[in-house]
Amino acid sequence: MERTFAIIKPDAVERKVSGKVLAMIEEAGFNIVGMKKIHLSKCEAEGFYYVHKERPFFGDLCSFMSRSPVIVLALEKDNAIADWRSLMGATNPANADAGTIRKELGVSIEENTVHGSDSPESAAYEIPYFFSQLELV
Ligand code: RTP
Ligand code: MG
């Protein structure tokens, strides 16, 4: 079993589609081993996305991620990291395959509904950024 980290981003929580995202996660066979709703500060968003700090969209991304609450998730499944990236779809919803979360629910390249770890190294940074061992069941 592998674990990955996911976020239901502010655009989805604001539009009240987080239940739809959770249903797609469960239907795809993921076990939710950690879940909580939090409102990130700008500083916390910057720490989470520090790998993107030189990218032109970094400031906008951190403002977006801290503008309203998100739901953070730890997901478990065989091949969880790659399978969650597949279920999310391409970064830009316009390029995402039918049936993916970003195609069905995404708004724009920035407001794309969900985040997912892109490697075992990212998952190992991201899960403990939000969850203590006691919060993972
Ligand atoms: P994520 O990290 O959120 O799972 O998304 P990703 O791997 O598909 O995309 P990444 O390149 O890591 O970008 C992180 C997030 O930054 C926003 N973004 N905005 N305005 C833009 O051109 C742009 N490009 C990326 C998106 O919210 C993207 O998910
Ligand atoms: Mg990424």
Automatic annotation (TrEMBL):
Cofactor(s) listed: Mg(2+)
**Domain of life of the source:** Bacteria
The answer to whether UniProt assigns keyword Metal-binding to this entry is yes
Database matches in SMART domains? NDK
- Which SUPFAM superfamilies does the protein's record reference? Nucleoside diphosphate kinase, NDK (SSF54919)
Q: Which InterPro entries match?
A: NDK-like_dom, NDK-like_dom_sf, Nucleoside_diP_kinase, Nucleoside_diP_kinase_AS
Nucleoside diphosphate kinase-like domain segment(s): 1-137
Q: Name one GO cellular component term.
A: cytoplasm
GO BP annotations, alphabetical order: CTP biosynthetic process; GTP biosynthetic process; UTP biosynthetic process
Kindly give the PROSITE patterns that the UniProt entry links to this protein.
Answer: NDPK, NDPK_LIKE
UniProt-annotated catalytic positions: H115
Subcellular locations according to the entry: Cytoplasm
Molecular function (Gene Ontology), one example: metal ion binding
Keyword annotations for this protein, in alphabetical order, are: ATP-binding, Cytoplasm, Kinase, Magnesium, Metal-binding, Nucleotide metabolism, Nucleotide-binding, Phosphoprotein, Transferase
Which E.C. number(s) belong to this protein? Answer: 2.7.4.6
Q: Does the keyword Kinase apply?
A: yes
> What reaction is this protein's catalytic activity?
a 2'-deoxyribonucleoside 5'-diphosphate + ATP = a 2'-deoxyribonucleoside 5'-triphosphate + ADP; a ribonucleoside 5'-diphosphate + ATP = a ribonucleoside 5'-triphosphate + ADP
Q: Binding residues for ATP, per the UniProt record?
A: K9, F57, R85, T91, R102, N112
Which Pfam families does its entry note? NDK
Its family remark reads: Belongs to the NDK family.
Stated role: Major role in the synthesis of nucleoside triphosphates other than ATP. The ATP gamma phosphate is transferred to the NDP beta phosphate via a ping-pong mechanism, using a phosphorylated active-site intermediate.
PANTHER family documented for this protein: NUCLEOSIDE DIPHOSPHATE KINASE (PTHR46161), NUCLEOSIDE DIPHOSPHATE KINASE DDB_G0292928-RELATED (PTHR46161:SF3)
| Record text on subunit structure and interactions | Homotetramer.
**Protein name per its UniProtKB record:** Nucleoside diphosphate kinase
Originating species: Geomonas limicola
